[in-house]
Amino acid sequence: MPVPVTLFFTCLADTFRPEIALSTVAVLERFDCRVTVPLSQTCCGQPPFNAGNRPEARAMAIRFLKRFAATEGYIVTPSGSCAAMVRHGYPALFRDEPIFLSKALDVGARTHELTSFLVDVLGVTDPKSDFKGVVAYHESCHLKRGMGVSAQPKSLLRAIPGVTLVDLAEADRCCGFGGLFSVKEPRISEAMVARKAECVVASGASIVTGGDYGCLMNIGGFLSRAGYPVAALHIAEILAGSAGTIPVPEAEETE
Amino acid sequence: MIPTPHLFSRRAAKALANSRLQATFARTTGKFLGARNAAFAELPDGEALRDRVAAVRDEALLALDVHLARFVVEAEKAGAVVHVADDAAMARAIAARIAKDEGVSLAVKSKSMVTEEVALNDGLASGGVVVIESDLGEYIVQLAEEPPSHLVAPAVHKTKEEVAELFASKLGEKSTGEIPELVGIARRKLREIFLSAGMGISGANFLVAETGTVVLATNEGNGRMTTTLPRVHLVVAGIEKVVPRMEDVPLLLRALTRSATGQKSTTYFSFLTGPKRAGDPQGPEKMHIILVDNGRSAILAGKYRAILRCLRCGACLNACPVYQSVGGHAYGWVYPGPMGSVLTPLLTGLYGSTRLPDASTLCGACAEVCPAKIPLPDLLLELRFDARMMGLKRPEEILAAKALALATRRAGLLEAIQRVAGLLAEIFVKDRKVSWMPGRLGAWTAKRDLPAPAPVPFRKLWRKARGIGPWTR
Amino acid sequence: MDAMTPLSRLLGRLRAATGGVAGLCATVGTLDVAILPEVGGDLVEAFTEALRSAGGEAFVTGVHQEEVLVALAERLRAVGATGLFIAEDDVAAREFAMALVPFGPFVVFSEADLRALPPPCSAGFQTVDAAVAESGAVVQSTRGGRSLLPGILPDVHVALVPGGSLVPRMEDVLARFSADMPRAVSFVTGPSRTADIEQTIVVGAHGPKSVIAVVTP
Fold this sequence. Notes:
The complex is a heterotrimer of chains A (255), B (473) and C (217).
Chain A: E1 3-7, H1 11-16, H2 18-30, E2 33-38, H3 46-51, H4 54-69, E3 74-77, H5 80-93, H6 98-110, E4 111-113, H7 114-121, E5 133-137, H8 141-146, H9 151-158, E6 163-166, H10 181-184, H11 186-203, E7 207-210, H12 213-226, E8 231-234, H13 235-240, E9 252-254
Parallel strand pairs in A: 1-2, 1-3, 2-9, 3-4, 5-6, 5-7, 7-8
Helix pairs in contact in A: 4-6, 5-6, 11-12
Chain B: H1 8-17, H2 19-42, H3 46-62, H4 64-77, E1 81-85, H5 88-101, E2 106-109, H6 113-117, H7 120-125, E3 130-133, H8 136-143, H9 160-171, H10 179-196, E4 199-202, E5 206-208, E6 213-218, H11 222-228, E7 232-238, E8 242-243, H12 249-261, E9 268-272, E10 286-292, H13 296-301, H14 315-319, H15 321-326, H16 337-348, H17 355-358, H18 365-369, H19 376-389, H20 395-407, H21 411-428, E11 433-434, H22 442-445, E12 450-451, H23 458-465
Chain C: H1 6-18, H2 43-53, E1 57-60, H3 65-78, E2 83-86, H4 91-100, E3 107-110, E4 122-127, E5 130-132, E6 137-141, E7 156-162, E8 166-167, H5 170-177, E9 184-188, E10 193-194, E11 202-203, E12 210-216
């Protein structure tokens, strides 16, 4: 029986790296999910929320809830921070508004980050990916501390025959992105990402991966400017392997 | 100490540029954090211990008036004189008056953050009282005329050569500069002070309501000397230090020492109840206790109450990647790191200190180590919201947030923007990497590339792949 | 209480802040001892191990009082502690110190003048009120008019622990005292120390540089 899944593809993937969203669909379909992609979605509101701009975050969250409250079943997103926003941020945002709060709690309970969905819900142990590479896994703060997801992505990576997962020192140390922090306190952010990059390079990996594209933009951006031969790839892309750029015809689109 | 948190970024930049400081902060905080983690791993159930600490602290705060009232009654029964200072100025005035009434001209002090907060030394100095810090780290920064840079290790930013130089120039004590010798010099100099000072000043780690007892946890032995030898003992403590029952104190001490330095206990735990009694061969003739509010009752009333659980252990500092990079002075006041980023705005006003809650990625490392489970990232986030509601945010930031909300209102509009951005990127950007951004966004591209927007956003790719019409409804 | 005092104003503010919720009953429930560090069944063993890992030393007398005296005398001579400093009324400490004299050269003296410094390199002998097995702490209090100085001023602190006063945890000690707290109850775990310069631990800051516990039967 195919599992119905609604894709929450994130504004960052949508705008900067569609491969992440395409890969997410590919992986889900590989494991017998029927993926629906509501194209009316835009952004969950995390950037203004984390900056304390709740009026804007609230407006964006209300629209998100309108679009996703009508769905049923699982909502899957390739982003630890977006999943955390919906699960934990929304109830805080709507704590004094019972109607939105109950929608938020419903949607939040059904929203899963990709790797935890694969492992904890679908019971996937082997992602059946053809990806090859020496990979270091960065534990993004929102995914590890916010969602409690850490063993799952690593177990999936280890199960890929072509992937060598190397140990990354200080793997769960913050990379210094923090959304607006990276431009509000750029020097501190640079110091933090430099330290992360040092660990990545020292690990011997040629690819650094993780479950949050914001972190990967940050780490990858530093590595590329500094000229290191290490690429930053989202874990969805590794899990999908070569299937990641080809959308599979069976899934549907809704408004 | 006059708060200057608005200078955070500038000071942070200086600290980042100082490679010796960088190495020192990294080494020290790493050591403390590692020791803390090892100590907690040894406990049968560290999580349960932290849960209980949080519960005990919350219980005390829930009826703080009742427990504080009991503390006063019991302390006075034991012969202490209890004073209440609504704010810093009152605390200084009371201390100065006590010193005057008791005829004190020299006071020796053991470490207390709240005395820095209310600038007690300044208040006493203006009354002609000389105050000497006896905690070695505080003694050093006092000689150097600098503020402390860490809750538990005030002189962490100083090398032994700097300390030797300080002892030579300020005390006339030359040395080989080896650390044990320097400690020996301080021991000798301060012992003279302990024996001649008219007043010993201490803080309190806890105030026990049940018995009117002041609890002090120290390693150096200066706490015991300060509270035994001089004729007057002055205790200065924040009102939130009250705990209802004696039986809860050992648990709190276990959590405090492990969280601060990984120690199972500090060398000395002193439980002090009132002044010298008939039959006691030594001890202070008088004990004065100043209970300091200075904004705490307001915090108690509001959504930030949880910060009052703070044990001042410094674990959050040690875990914080921002503190590890910039050290304590950057925060501009007595309380640094994550707890300081919450407490400084609450005690001195968010108006001048919005940079502090902003100087965090909300990574959560602090919350993971806080023995009292204070939800520091949530409190920092709340302060950012307060800044917005108080009109303290930069207009550009609010504009950008509104622009984002507008752009994401309709998928169609967002897509149009994405298409334009993608097109511009194809024309102007090489290798899909942006290496220059205008204005504030240029802060990113100083040392990092930014990916260019994709030529076609996902939503369009998806529609094309599935053969669906051009516009979403 | 007069409504105008700073204290009553403070209490009023606090009451308003918490909504005047009465809190006389404990809400936290009893402590589950299972969350505390384990203390071994043999208290003496647990105590001596804990004290040693805190940088102190421990001797246990019993049948072999003489061996302990010899070993202790050697320790004291090794650090050059020739003065044995005791409180006036501490009979057990005086007896013990006198018993050491033959292994000397040692001189026993008491605090004739409260403000005089014991000569450099002296050892303070003191019968303590209790000892804690969990942490290796010895407990000195002012109960009964006892002096704290032998444990504060000299370079060496020799704590005589009556075996029956050894208890598992700090809670047990406080339970004994809290009904009627003396002016001071001090838990001393090993020698004083500081790491305030370059995070390098130096043993012997302001308090004693070494702590030796002698557990007597």
